[in-house]
Amino acid sequence: MDKTIRENTWLAEKQTLSPRASFSEKSRGRLLPEGECPVRTAYQRDRDRILHSNSFRRLKHKTQVFLSPEGDHYRTRLTHTLEVSQIARTIARALRLNEDLAEAVALGHDLGHTPFGHAGEKALDEVFPGGFRHYNHSIRVVEVLEKDGRGLNLTFEVKDGIRCHTGGEPADTLEGRIVRLADRIAYINHDIDDAINAGVLTEEDIPYTIRERLGFSKSGRINTLVVSAIENSADDIRLDAGVGQAFGELHDFMFDRVYTNPVCKGEEVKAIAMVKWLYEYYVGHPASLPPGNMEAAGDEGPPRASCDYIAGMTDRYAVKVFEELFVPKSWIVL
Questions:
Q1: In this structure, what CATH number is given to the domain that contains residue 155?
Q2: Alpha helix locations (H) across the chain?
Q3: What are the backbone dihedrals phi and psi of residue 182, each rounded to the nearest 5 degrees, phi first?
Q4: What is the distance between the alpha carbons of residues 58 and 51, in angstroms, rounded to a whole number?
Q5: Which of 43, 47, 106 shows the shortest CA–CA distance to 77?
């Protein structure tokens, strides 16, 4: 009997990938067992499910760093996600790890991000009982909220990589750990690019010692970091000591000059207040919530349903809803 395309891919993985790779044939599977696709491996199916999800499409209208920037070249949560995916795939391919798994994790890692970036996350963390973390909410999105409450039924490995992409325990797979590093490489470098475009800083403002070690341009820094990861990840995903130290110093510089800069963050207090007002409104008026959110919340009730609904909003939709609820409309005299 002829092998399916998927079975040939399994064979190709055995022949070409490193023994350290996560082989799709050996996946720990899904919460709800499914039959195999004749064409795609489990990780390829997960990638496609994420790409076709509503949550993925909404990322194009969610803030990265600059709230509602004027101009076409600033990053959104979607373009950030694509940059993370590209970097993760490059590292995974060079290390002969499973590129499909790395790509699926990268594409799904920020599905649970709120409107207004970390400002929205901070707001929900302060008002929602038990707190809010976007990486945990990304798991809720793929397990519960997508597809009208059915979820995407992703593999264990993809969900583990999404959950562990920032802080806490490292992912179980090397591919998941690649995404964790790729996320940091992407956001620090594209945030520099956006800050330069916004006139917040110049390339020359970055300390010379950092630029000398990492590179004198965005592409130069990304190349240095990617090559360092490839050359130093014999048993885990890591940078060499010198590059790692300079990268940490670059993060500290960005925190001081951009992530707390009033030009970049001056509107965040408004965004935080807006998200909190929306949350309190819907907790007090659960009948105004979409029925699907109440159903998904189940026994957790209005607080959970309100958090789910608001976290899924895009920036502009959150503003629209806020205006409808709290901004007086003009009188129309006939």
A1: 1.10.3210.10
A2: 5-16, 42-51, 54-58, 77-94, 99-108, 117-127, 134-140, 146-149, 156-163, 174-197, 208-214, 218-231, 241-254, 262-265, 268-284, 291-297, 301-311, 315-326
A3: -60, -35
A4: 11
A5: 106
Structural domain range at position 280: 42-315
The larger pLDDT score, comparing residue 94 to residue 2, is at 94
pLDDT digits (tens, 9 = 90+) for 202-213: 999 999 999 999
pLDDT score recorded for residue 67: 62
Q: How many CB atoms lie within 10 A of CB 119?
A: 21
C-beta atoms surrounding 130 within 10 Å: 11
* Structural contact between residues 257 and 205, judged by C-beta atoms closer than 8 angstroms: yes
Q: Phi/psi of residue 76, each to 5°?
A: -115, 175
What is the reported pTM? 0.95
Q: How far apart are CA 277 and CA 197, in angstroms?
A: 32
Residue 63 backbone phi and psi in degrees, to 5 = -65, 145
- Determine contact, residues 24/40, Cβ cutoff 8 Å: no
Tokens at residue 212, please?
């000398």
Return the bridge partners of 286, or none: none
Helices 268-284 and 301-311, axial angle in degrees (round to 10): 140
Tell me the per-residue pLDDT of 290-313, one tens digit each, with 9 for 90 and over. 989 989 888 899 999 999 999 999
Q: Is the pLDDT of residue 266 over 60?
A: yes
Phi, psi (5° rounding) for residue 54?
-65, -40
Please tell me the total count of domains within the chain.
1
Query: 90: Cβ–Cβ under 8 A, 6 or more apart, which residues?
Result: 226
Residue 16, domain member (yes or no): no
| 231 found inside a domain | yes
- Whether 12 is in a domain gets the answer no
* Residues 111 and 142: beta-carbon distance below 8 Å: yes
DSSP 120-174: HHHHHHHHSTT---HHHHHHHIIIIIHHHHT----BHHHHHHHHTSSSSSPPSSH
Q: How much is the average pLDDT of 204-224? A: 98
Residue 64 resides in a domain: yes
